[in-house]
Amino acid sequence: MDPIDFSLYLVTDRALLPVGKTHLETLEQAIIGGVTVVQIREKTADTAEFLRVAQESKALCDRYNLPLIINDRIDISLAVGARGVHLGQTDMPIDIARQLMPTGTIIGISCNTLDEVRRAKEAKADYVGLGAVWSTQTKKLTSPPIGVRGLGAMLDVLSGSNIKAVAIGGIKSTNLAHLMHGSMSQLEECLDGVAVVSDIVAAPDPMKAAQRLKSIFRASRIVAAKRIPTSRDDILTKALTIMTAVRSLNPLVHQMTNVVVANQSANITLALGASPIMATAPEEMSDLSKISHALLVNIGTLVSGSLQGMLKAGHFVNTARNPIILDPVGVGASEFRKNSVNELLNSWQATVIKGNAGELAALAGSTEAESKGVDSLGNFKDPALFTRQLSRKERCVVVLTGETDYISDGERVFMLKNGHPLLGSITGSGCVLGSCIASYCAAANLLASDGDQHEGRLNRGGDFLSAAVGAVLALTVASELAAKRGDVHGIGSFLPALIDELSTLRPEAIRRLAKIEEVGF
Ligand code: 3NM
Ligand code: MG
């Protein structure tokens, strides 16, 4: 028997069919659209009806040479000669099912926890269904969704085995790219496929729905493995190109930031040559995602209502393939902030995460660096290694700020030593750095967008490592220039001087003053 291609796994649900559509015509359209394996799932049918649906579906799948799997019922699977069964945690145990089924039967099992994945591996399942990734209307969940970031650890458990893994629960064409990107494991294991019910079954055009999902899945698998190598001089040159592009392209940077720094963030953005828009209402997030070029999410003065807007905004910005910069301000200070940041990162894919040692330690669940409110106390033993590891884990560029700043894309780590102490003395210098990074990422993404049609990308493949380096250099070098001015006497006069210096900053000044080094491992 051919091995099963799990890439697009359709799970049926006749209750979700749009009015006027039949199960079989929807199934056939989905197969034509690119579904690679089908599971018949009947939760309310009696045995005779389940058997009839399974027989008809089997005949259709046979015509397209597609494997058919039956949910829960070993007897139905045997009766129609299906390729396998899919079991839940409370169904027949795998070893007994194995004894009852012919040799070569595919047995899959749903797993919701790491322990369940370990047990599935011991029991020699052929594949696991990992979920629910997100909440779903299709099934009443008995435990909370695991989120995208929980999947990587599950994939690591399976690493080296032949067990295939598909994710399930709330997967749609609008979040599939994030799922593929954010679920990759530390060992670079990817999902073998995605299982989908409503996005196909309830779609007005199931063939198109399947095509969309399939092409995103394919593109994501290719993009996931690709990284751009960069040297120190190379990255400086690229950063300065992006700096110039911010001025010529004048990107619109949507910023959901805190009330303390909103005004200075908007002015700093203008000084760089970008345009700010500071909007928070969930109702306008869809519209704004169509006109803006990057999104900054800063949780500095988060309230419950603003979280909804941030969740929505990120979803639309991922779909528009524009960059998202997350500034998890004071994430260690409260459970509310911690849970909120978790929810944000499980709902959308960040392009850059920026924070001080205390914030990034809290985000990574590390106790190495502590926080006092929004201020960081202490640092990591090996900040460069920490930055690289967090970057790998979250699959985005990470900027660790401090006296020395560290920036990594999961491969390279750059260490930057510019900046005047006055920059740390004003409020919100970290937050305005978020605005700088967002402006630079917006330009980097625009520079990369020409002719790139990959649907599966979460962004247009811009050089966000160079963008982050450029943004940090711009702000820190400008702070050095501002502090030297005769009209600066303290933090009050420093801020306007910083804005002025940023607005007249030349690439040559950065090239001359930049203290940047690559960290070797
Ligand atoms: N099993 P949709 S979630 C059948 O978590 C099923 O094991 C799940 O439907 C699990 O793609 C789910 O419409 C329903 O969200 C998935
Ligand atoms: Mg079951």
TrEMBL record:
Which positions make up the signal peptide? Answer: none
The UniProt keywords, alphabetically, are:
ATP-binding, Kinase, Magnesium, Metal-binding, Nucleotide-binding, Thiamine biosynthesis, Transferase
Q: Which Gene3D superfamilies match?
A: 3.40.1190.20, Aldolase class I (3.20.20.70)
The pathway that the record names for this protein is:
Cofactor biosynthesis; thiamine diphosphate biosynthesis; 4-methyl-5-(2-phosphoethyl)-thiazole from 5-(2-hydroxyethyl)-4-methylthiazole: step 1/1; Cofactor biosynthesis; thiamine diphosphate biosynthesis; thiamine phosphate from 4-amino-2-methyl-5-diphosphomethylpyrimidine and 4-methyl-5-(2-phosphoethyl)-thiazole: step 1/1
What catalytic activity is recorded?
A: 2-[(2R,5Z)-2-carboxy-4-methylthiazol-5(2H)-ylidene]ethyl phosphate + 4-amino-2-methyl-5-(diphosphooxymethyl)pyrimidine + 2 H(+) = thiamine phosphate + CO2 + diphosphate; 5-(2-hydroxyethyl)-4-methylthiazole + ATP = 4-methyl-5-(2-phosphooxyethyl)-thiazole + ADP + H(+); 4-methyl-5-(2-phosphooxyethyl)-thiazole + 4-amino-2-methyl-5-(diphosphooxymethyl)pyrimidine + H(+) = thiamine phosphate + diphosphate; 2-(2-carboxy-4-methylthiazol-5-yl)ethyl phosphate + 4-amino-2-methyl-5-(diphosphooxymethyl)pyrimidine + 2 H(+) = thiamine phosphate + CO2 + diphosphate
Cellular component per GO? cytoplasm
Task: Give the molecular function GO annotations.
Answer: ATP binding; hydroxyethylthiazole kinase activity; magnesium ion binding; thiamine-phosphate diphosphorylase activity
What SUPFAM superfamilies does its record include? Answer: Ribokinase-like (SSF53613), Thiamin phosphate synthase (SSF51391)
Does the keyword field hold RNA-binding? Answer: no
Cofactor(s) needed = Mg(2+)
Biological process per Gene Ontology, one example term: thiamine biosynthetic process
Name one matching Pfam family. TMP-TENI
The Thiamine phosphate synthase/TenI domain covers 8-200
User: InterPro entries in the record, alphabetically?
Assistant: Aldolase_TIM, Hyethyz_kinase, Ribokinase-like, ThiamineP_synth_sf, ThiamineP_synth_TenI, TMP_synthase
What does the function comment of this entry state?
Answer: Condenses 4-methyl-5-(beta-hydroxyethyl)thiazole monophosphate (THZ-P) and 2-methyl-4-amino-5-hydroxymethyl pyrimidine pyrophosphate (HMP-PP) to form thiamine monophosphate (TMP).
Q: Which HAMAP family does this entry report, sorted A to Z?
A: Thz_kinase (MF_00228), TMP_synthase (MF_00097)
Which family does the UniProt entry place this protein in? Answer: In the C-terminal section; belongs to the Thz kinase family.
Q: What is this protein called?
A: Thiamine biosynthetic bifunctional enzyme Thi4
